Amino acid sequence: MKAETKYKGALKLAAIGDALGWMTEFEYSNDNLQTKFGQSSIDKFHNWEKTVGGRFNGYIDYLKAGSYSDDTQLLLSVARSIKPNGNVDHDYFSKAELPSWLLYSRGAGRTIKNAAQKIERKSAKWNHNFFTFKAGNNTIDYRESGANGAAMRILPIALANFRDIETIKEEVFANSIVTHGHSRAILGAILYAYAVDLIIPINHNDFNAESYIVQIGQDFQQKFSLPFLNKVEYSSWIHEWNKKSKTTFIEQYNQTLNETQEQLRLIYKGLTGNYSPEKILNELGCVAKETKGSGIATVLAGIYLTCKFYNKPIDGIVYAVNYLGSDTDSIAAFTGGLLGALHGQSVIPEKWKTVQDFDYLDITAKRLLAISEDNYISETDKEIIKSIRDFKLDKDDYKLDDKVNYHPLGSGKIIKIDRQQPLTKGKYNLIVDIEFEIGQTCRFSKLLNGVIPKSNNQKDVIELIKAKVDSSKQADLIENINRMNNEEVNDLIIKVLKSLA
Length: 501
Fold this sequence. Notes:
Blueprint lengths: L2 H22 L5 H8 L10 E5 L6 E5 L6 H11 L9 H12 L8 H9 L13 E4 L2 E4 L13 H6 L4 H12 L6 H17 L9 H9 L2 H4 L8 H12 L5 H24 L4 H8 L10 H14 L4 H9 L6 H16 L14 H15 L30 E4 L3 E11 L6 E10 L4 E9 L8 H11 L2 H14 L2 H13 L2
Antiparallel strand pairs: 1-2, 3-4, 5-6, 6-7, 7-8
Helix pairs in contact: 1-15, 1-16, 1-17, 3-4, 7-8, 8-14, 8-16, 9-12, 9-14, 12-13, 12-14, 13-14, 14-15, 14-16, 15-16, 18-19, 18-20
């Protein structure tokens, strides 16, 4: 099988797993799925909606079928940050991609959003982004951030540096510490990258699940050691990490290595003993509140499901998507990335090819393959930017089809504008969808002061309603039109009403 189909399969099935799993992430029963999607088990994309932004200032995010979450958004950000030699431009990722992502992030957790905000401090650097943030009544320290926000984005690093595990380890470590400081997040990311690197050259007909786990677990302490930590850029990070901790980072990392090796033994026993996936995933901690989003637990879940369903890749992803109560989008993305790297893109069913930005994922995979083969020629080197973003949401003066520029995504066209009134008076949410020339689509949103301005075609649609619609129905319809105040919807209604006799 050609490497290209494996690279494309890995990226696309990771995004597909993310998009499917995002739909089920906060659902806790099959009855809920049936009510919401008309399916008690999700195996295809649906249009859906979720409330974001809190009770008083929130809005309804209407999600198109196949929309992906922050997992894939940040994966693509990392992919754009990889230089032609396979190394990550850490300054570019931390100071350009990550802060800019905040305006279009979807489904992001508290740690990664706080990290993206804190990296904008002048004193912060990719290897010095120590911070704390409030979570309810608790204060969370960067050193305690052990979730999977690093692991979910590092697939491109593994692909760009295929068969160079020492480079992979260092580049993944460096990218991880921009946002996460706990060894569970860091080792989880390195472990996932290693699992991808190991599975790419295997023919799916020759794959042996038990042997794969044994290969991962062999010489585990040595394999996942961090010899590069004596470099000045990392030793300074270690020094700062150790200053305010009761233990050293190395002690914590070694403890995490031991814990992870034990869990790999659990997976091996589960495979050889043919235990149910539910039993193994529960024992890995995938539904326990304290560990469900752990960088270790979720990556191991992806590795396990890959082994359990290696000869039925679609079933493996669907199982991850419907393992309710877990971090379904990330686990399904890890499972999809590994199974895609094993089987290639040919196993993707037609119904999944409508995932958001399918073609851009294709382009990204080809670029990463070219880098891994030393065949990539960059058109221009990226600048480390402190540039003005042409596109800002500080004013509501955009129109459909406006051409805009947003660093680092480049030029794009506005394809949808929505405005929604929250419970808080004197404010409204401006929501703008942009299709960028590079192939990625993003939804930006911001809470603005003031009242929702009337759409340019608001008056036209109301006049047509009065002329074309039965008088008994006009009041309710006009009230809804005024509430939505959406130019795109108004255009559609105008076309329909004009077609009426």
